[in-house]
Design a protein that fits this description.
The chain is α+β, with helices and mostly antiparallel strands and 359 residues long. It contains 13 helices and eight strands. The chain has two domains: 139 residues, Orthogonal Bundle (Muramoyl-pentapeptide Carboxypeptidase, domain 1); 135 residues, Muramoyl-pentapeptide Carboxypeptidase, domain 2 (2-Layer Sandwich), CATH 3.30.1380. The structure holds zinc ion. One of its GO terms (molecular function) is carboxypeptidase activity.
């Protein structure tokens, strides 16, 4: 059944699209999704070259090779399974560079697929749920167009009014957002929920919210802290672009733009808009967000244990030149367990991590 539908699909696409050969020198990442060669086209070329020996058996073999890998993968992984995943995505219409690197192109494709698959959280990570959805897609071939969920990154990055580069994949749970990379002004995470942790206020404010994966990870972190006999409070999570705009404007009119940029973020440049950050505090510092929190038992427990739950202290002491923020022992950023542990063990920042991985 699967084989037959694949052959029919390939044949139909081949007939519809024809087979313009792809420019060999063109780098795939620079090609917008709409202009990419589809795998069907490639099959078309192969068909042309083969001298009539293209049998059903060969098609079948190709199909087993493109099975989505049984693995958990994320950006910057280098693995055979990454190539297998790219082959699987290419077989359903993507056109990813066939390498073993989990690059931005693959992060985009996974995110795009996740957005178009209703039940999935758009994280950019290849997890079990994404694999199941891919397998189902292979079986049932529902309608999905590369780029329809998340547009392929433009060749030249967009810029904010302040001249900051706009990130093309705000859904990516590893997204780097800082004074050099801003979120789009219309980006609102779609999976915001209130984590079941103590807050020092009872109103249902936007700052209680976090993206779903991060919220559940925060719940586990708070459980861990409680088991260690500590009491912490979540103070401030999600913050919209507009709210950040108001905060920055108020700071700037009171103290000037330079001052505002040192102590707060321009709209789009705040990690709180990602829904992946939460400011945490304790009674010992009167529930304030102050440097002294780092000296408290809670602050020290966080610095040591947050990575186990997928969080990093995003603005560490001594890294102010790199992060362009003062030391903030209270500001947690979710990046997933693997990356959080690595970053913390290496004593680096998210900026340095990117520099190291991207080279
Ligand atoms: Zn913060």
């Amino acid at each position: 059944m699967q084989g037959v539908s694949w052959v029919i699909l390939s044949a139909i696409c081949f007939m519809l699209i024809g087979c313009e050969p792809q420019e060999p020198s063109q780098s795939q990442e620079d090609v917008p999704a709409s202009e990419q060669t589809t795998p069907e086209q490639k099959h078309g070329e192969e068909d042309k070259q083969a001298d009539g020996q293209q049998t059903e058996e060969a098609e079948k073999q190709e199909e087993t090779e493109v099975e989505p890998p049984d693995a958990v993968l994320q950006k910057f992984d280098t693995d055979e399974a990454v190539l297998q995943l790219k082959n699987a995505l290419n077989a359903i219409g993507y056109d990813l560079e066939a390498t073993e690197e989990f690059d931005e192109g693959l992060t985009w494709a996974i995110t795009d697929f996740q957005i178009q698959s209703e039940d999935l959280l758009a994280s950019g990570f290849y997890d079990e749920a994404t694999r199941d959805a891919l397998l189902l897609y292979f079986e049932e071939g529902e309608s999905m167009e590369p780029g329809e969920g998340l547009a392929w990154p433009p060749e030249e990055a967009e810029k904010t009014e302040a001249g900051t580069e706009v990130v093309s994949n705000p859904y990516d749970e590893l997204a780097l957002v800082n004074k050099s990379f801003a979120l789009p002004d219309d980006y609102i995470p779609e999976d915001l929920i209130v984590p079941d942790v103590p807050f020092p206020f009872t109103e249902d404010l936007p700052q209680k919210y976090m993206r779903e994966n991060a919220a559940h990870a925060l719940e586990e972190l708070f459980e861990g802290a409680e088991e260690a006999g500590l009491e912490m409070f979540a103070q401030s999570g999600y913050r919209s672009y507009d709210r950040q705009d108001d905060i920055f404007a108020a700071n700037a009119s009171q103290h000037g733009e330079d001052h505002a940029n040192t102590y707060s973020a321009r709209p789009g440049e705040s990690e709180h808009q990602t829904g992946l950050a939460m400011d945490v505090t304790s009674a010992e510092v009167n529930l304030e967000l102050v440097e002294a929190f780092g000296e408290t038992e809670e602050g020290q427990w966080l610095a040591e244990n947050a990575p186990e739950y997928g969080f990093i202290i995003r603005f560490p002491e001594g890294k102010e030149d790199i992060t362009e923020y003062q030391y903030e022992p209270w500001h947690l950023r979710y990046v997933g367990e693997k990356t959080a542990k690595y970053i913390t063990e290496q004593g680096i920042t998210l900026e340095e991590y990117y520099e190291e991985q991207v080279e």
